[in-house]
Amino acid sequence: MTLLLKVDALNPDREVIRRAADVILKGGLVAFPTETVYGLGASTYNDEAIRRIYVVKNRPMDNPSIIHISSLNQLHEVAEDVPEELEEKLKIVWPGPLTIILRKSSRISAVASCGLNTVAVRMPAHPVALTLISESTPISAPSANISGKPSPTRAEHVIRDLWGKIDLIIDGGESFFGVESTIIDYTRKSPVLYRPGPFTVEELRRIFGEVKVPEQALGLGQFKEALAPGMKYRHYAPDKPLILTECGELDGLVKLTLDLATDEVKKGKKVVVLCSSETCGSYAKVGFRIIEVGSRLNLYTVAKNLFHSLRLIDSMDVDLAIAEGYPEVGVGLAVMNRLRKASGYKMVKCTA
Ligand code: TXA
Ligand code: MG
Question: What is the 3-state secondary structure (H, E, C) of 155-189?
Fold first, then answer.
């Protein structure tokens, strides 16, 4: 049995959050909104509850979850050897969509860390998530979707994937950013980016100085060894095939996308184009179905609608989706990383 409770995202009813905190403390599973995507949470100190998360999500057992905290005291509870200079920086960036990999403390079980000696930790910038944690305990939470599907950015996505399998869903409306947190590894000499997210590389470098950005973090091709265990699995994918078009220049991108869509229609395929406010008209006027993802003038709008758009594809009477690419600046890097993975690395580039 799953219970659904609605709250105001910015000013959540404390009584409702206390009820949810009680479910966490009693070993239950609660889906809750964060500023990035919805998480599926259990107490970090309850191995049985954490194991249940893996079962209901159908998540591989070697893929650890992020530990969500609401204070720096909790950071020292879950992580060890936190460098002093890092703590000063965390006071600037937290709460926020940035996850840091650190050495785990002895309090963290092998189940909670999937046997690794590190933990991924973040303090979410969302009133519902922060209050839920401060009313309960550090919360281990992967995204609240069936493994492999696009992460949920609305309660309706969680309902679709997990209704009847978890104890409670807190509906706090749409997540603010729409893509998962940026992850950096802080156990190495200089920080390494594992997953691009709303906290951009440009912002990271301003705070942390040198930050390494390996090819894997861009979502370029598959690779032998995954930096984060989760990176080796297929992700974000709609059930229907998706092709990503990439071109540095906008007219070239539209032409490439139109040509590809036209070819596929000639082969008898029903096509939908995932396009931007600036370009959708070019496809609509020649009769293509479209999903408008967001504006190129503000890539945060694209990030926010991206996973909902990917989920829409499967609800439409189409055989194939073609998605336009975006510039890899700012949050565009996170958007492209997710789109490349969603396409299963089926990318078509312009020749120019
Ligand atoms: O925005 C987010 O990060 C959302 C919300 C709910 O906070 N959570 C999320 O969790 O995206 P999940 O489980 O879908 O992604 C967590 C990623 C996985 O790729 C996992 O492999 C990686 O973090 N990870 C977790 N612990 C790690 C560790 N100790 N070392 C390396 N990677 C780790
Ligand atoms: Mg996930």
Answer: HHHHHHHHCCCCCEEEECCCCCCCCCCEEEECCCC
